Amino acid sequence: MIRIIALFILLIPGFLAGFGIKLMRDMTFGVLLSPIPSLGLQFLLGLLLFIGGLGFVAGFIFRRDRKRNKVQARFKNSNR
């Protein structure tokens, strides 16, 4: 049950990162979505969504690996 919850927690930022890529791609081809007033703002919003989603997933994986001692010595938590 906990693994399913963790999967759903990871899917939401994954979909947001995918939507960010779509926004950046649409800006490259000149397709403006209706609630966003300009192409530059659309690209910036897409970039923020992509970096935020990717950062969340990467941080989740890094924290899990750190708890299981599967990281290099320089990344191990020193106060444990």
Write structural notes for this entry.
The protein has about 80 residues and is mainly α. The chain has one domain. The chain has two helices and no strands. Helix 1 packs antiparallel against helix 2. The longest helix has 29 residues. It is elongated, with a radius of gyration of 17 Å. About 10% of the residues are buried.
Nutshell version of this structure?
This protein is an all-alpha fold. It has 2 helices and no strands.
Global outline = elongated
Give the CA-CA distance, first to last residue. 29 Å
- How would a textbook summarize the main sheet? none
In the residues, how many domains can be counted? 1
Our estimate of the beta-strand percent is: under 5%
Please give the radius of gyration in angstroms: 17 Å
Helix content: over 70%
